[in-house]
UniProtKB/TrEMBL annotation:
Biological process (GO), any one: double-strand break repair via homologous recombination
MF (Gene Ontology): 3'-5' DNA helicase activity; ATP binding; four-way junction helicase activity; nucleic acid binding
GO CC annotation terms, alphabetical: chromosome; cytoplasm; nucleus
Pfam families recorded: DEAD
InterPro entries: DEAD/DEAH_box_helicase_dom, Helicase_ATP-bd, P-loop_NTPase
Gene3D superfamilies named among the record's database cross-references: P-loop containing nucleotide triphosphate hydrolases (3.40.50.300)
Protein name per the record: Helicase ATP-binding domain-containing protein
Organism in which the protein naturally occurs: Triticum turgidum subsp. durum (Durum wheat)
Family membership: Belongs to the helicase family. RecQ subfamily.
Residue span(s) of domain Helicase ATP-binding: 1-133
Length: 153
């Protein structure tokens, strides 16, 4: 998360990360005051920040929740983490039926490169994704990744 924030800063985009690795204890307050365009938050911290996040959703607003490495949600995934599984609270708490100031539910995007069919089904169920959820599958081929091998004899 820290590396992603540094890269965004180089492009003039204000970003921060919240979690146990954050050395500056003022960053969380600034984030909840809406001072960053992008906030990276570990699952454990999301669960702790439910009420401040609701206030942030009202003003200035939250455009999207993106869960990276979402295979960690699944009990069938190779990196299962219990706090990931609890992220269904995002779906439950950030919907227009709960927060009357919202015109629509805050979208939830789930991203992973390693989800078998049972893992994908478990993710959809665990995160309480709607029947209208679009699942996009792409190739593992990534043209931006390159490997160079040098043979030494």
């Amino acid at each position: 998360m820290h590396d992603q924030c540094l890269k965004l800063a180089k492009h003039g985009i204000s970003a921060c990360f919240l979690g146990s690795g954050q050395p500056d204890n003022r960053v969380e307050g600034k984030a909840m005051a809406g001072m960053y365009k992008i906030i990276y938050v570990c699952p454990e911290t999301v669960l702790r920040l439910m009420e401040p996040l609701k206030k942030l959703a009202e003003k200035p607003g939250i455009a999207l929740f993106a869960i990276d490495e979402v295979h960690c949600v699944s009990k069938w995934g190779h990196d299962f983490r219990p706090d990931y599984r609890k992220l269904s609270v995002l779906r439950q708490n950030f919907c227009s039926s709960k927060l009357k100031f919202l015109e629509h539910d805050i979208p939830l995007m789930a991203l992973t490169a390693t989800a078998t069919l049972p893992v994908r089904e478990d993710i959809l169920k665990s995160l309480k994704m709607s029947g209208h959820t679009v699942v996009v599958l792409t190739s593992f081929f990534r043209p931006n990744l390159r490997f160079n091998l040098e043979l030494h004899r």
